[in-house]
Amino acid sequence: MTDAHRSGTADLIAFARARSPFYRDLYAHLPADVADLTRLPLIDHTAFWQAHTVADSRLLTGPHTDGIVFKTGGTTGMPRISFYTRPEWRAMAQRFGVGLLAAGVQPGDRVANLFYAGELYSSFVFTLNLFQEAPVTTVQLPIGGAATPEQVVATMRDFSATVIAALPTSLSRLAREVVDTVGSMPLIRLALFSGEAFHDDQLPLIKQAFPNITVRSIGYASVDAGVLAAPVAGEFDNRVHQVLAPEKVVELLDPVTGEPIEEPGRPGRVVATDLVRRLTPMIRYPVGDLAEWVDFPSRTFRLLGRAEEGARVGPVSIFLEDLRTLVTETDTGGRIGGLQVVVRHFDGRDQLTLRLADSTPQAAGRELLEAAVIEQLDVRRPLFTDQVARGAIHPVAVEWVGPGGLAVNPRTGKAIRLLDERLG
């Protein structure tokens, strides 16, 4: 760590302790001059979001009087709100923009933005601002995710689009429309995706619709943690990204022991710190992903999937604590003794499976309880239901097992909260 980097870390910690009641309490037991990130506790997601609500926030370092607000939905009906000042938002777009050249954007590209807008979603707005601040000239086509496939194809043809920015599920749906209607669109040479993983089984249909296309990650970011890493030029493994240092700090921590990882090829939880954001400090925030270092000195890493904080099912974020709360509140009789979330991918789509441990030996009554859980998921997470209806993801599935039927960590014997079977 350089002296400038160490100084920036010390300034951020001191600022957060002085201005944010949440961080003041979290760091109350630490020395006043602490400046080493590794000496700080990790953010606990439950405590963090309980302290940061729409009506009242103990996290903010001051009033939010200029900037923008976004949210990511939680299944409990308590959305997670992210506040950015205007300078923070612009600086984030400018910093992320350097990755567009590495991803393959060229001067004069005509970019069809198919991300979702409105309802405080961030992807469309951020992509729009990203290209406005980009170090390469482009023409933007702000089509949006709500447009029908027919409208998207017509607009892209009318304005000779060369680049698509979209969720992988949106890209797959669009490819089907192109194949079924106009056959192919050879002008499209690049697709930039984010928000969910891109799977190899999605590529044949996409290549059929867009024969000259290359599919690349637009970069690594989240609404909560902000921008973190950019794609690497010449690297066509879309999971590989390089940390946007020095402003962003990414740590990989052993999932069991919590120890820092520096050697390549060893999976760890992604923990992020943003040295720039001040209104909503993000200091050692677990992003919810697993990754491994490709090259530690250059801070290049490969994403491996979701960790235990949450699951990404197609374009939908599902937070594990929210799911646990939903199941507990629905199971008024206390029948379910444990919950395990399994995410699978088949037939080109993701599926969320709830594995429920039945504390009773009788099968009677399971169907009613299962239906009630699914109904509550529909009520509390309408985006999930909407994406099922659109054919972007499979309907939720439920698996019943006995009290000992949940998969466990062989080293600790603890039940594994999330099994991401897409990694196999």
From TrEMBL:
InterPro entries with a match to the protein in the record: ANL_N_sf
Superkingdom: Bacteria
Keyword field: Ligase
Gene3D superfamilies with a match to the protein in the record: N-terminal domain of ligase-like
Family matches, as SUPFAM superfamilies: Acetyl-CoA synthetase-like
GO molecular function: ligase activity
Protein name: Phenylacetate-CoA ligase
